[in-house]
Amino acid sequence: MVEVLERTRPYEEFQTVVQAALRRLESEGIHALVSIHFYASPDSTEVGALLTFSDRDQMMKHICMISEWDEFRAFFGVIKPIDVRVYGRLRPEVEAWVRQFDCLNKTFDSHVAGFVR
Question: Would 26 be classed as within a structural domain?
Answer without folding.
Answer: yes
